[in-house]
Amino acid sequence: MKIIAVCGMGIGTSVLLKINAEKVLKMIGVDATVEAADMATARGAAFDAQIVLTTPELVESLKGLNAEIISIDHFFDLEELNIKLSKALL
Amino acid sequence: MGLLADAFGEGSILLKGSVDNRSAAIELAGELLVASGRATKGYVASMLDAVEKFGPYIVIAPGIALAHGKPSEDVIETGLSLLVLENAIEFQHSQNDPVQLVFGLAATDHESHIELMSELAQFLSDQDSVNSLLTCSDSEQIRLLLG
Fold this sequence. Notes:
The complex is a heterodimer. Chain A is of the alpha/beta class. In chain A, 41% of the residues lie in helices and 22% in strands. Chain A has one domain: Rossmann fold. Chain A is globular. Chain A starts with a strand and ends with a helix. Chain B is globular, with a radius of gyration of 14 Å. Chain B has a five-stranded mixed beta sheet with strand order 1-4-5-3-2, sandwiched between helices. Chain B has a single domain, classed as Mannitol-specific EII, Chain A, CATH 3.40.930.10. By secondary structure, chain B is of the alpha/beta class. The chains are: A alpha/beta, B alpha/beta.
């Protein structure tokens, strides 16, 4: 299972998402790798993730990818991440 | 000092900042990175471009923005800045407006700051810490909070 956390630049927002998503995956016992990526990488041909985590603002731009897109409002709310990731994965 | 406190160079924290709009807030957070020797003016422009291009996605939680560009030669050293706004500003975010804490982030590459981001995430996950940032009256107090 591969998950990609996407933001515009791939250093700030996506890295924070990756960190907290990894915490939640551990909590719910799912074995998956989470990579942070910028928009260009996410849209590139090498893209092979099953799930994309991103912010509401970027969902439109990521549509058309062959992965489930999950939008996260509050990056530090592990409960929100838990609910949304559990729904997609369990 | 811990990793998180170390990321804030001398002159990187400004309290009671007063700006009129989102661009001015991002610019000021960027200027703090320049003032503390972590980035050049070119980086401030890239922080503004990021929001022009991708929208206000940098608002990562209610009231908190993480303004950043991307790793480039404009980054001198990985670091953070913090602008605490006197009056909260609308960033036109769908859920998390208005913004009162604006962090600036400069990173030399895509990997080396991950541990730092982890500490920042840990710190900002605690609502008491966030509230303390908003009520601190001087930047030394904030440094102590950051650990």
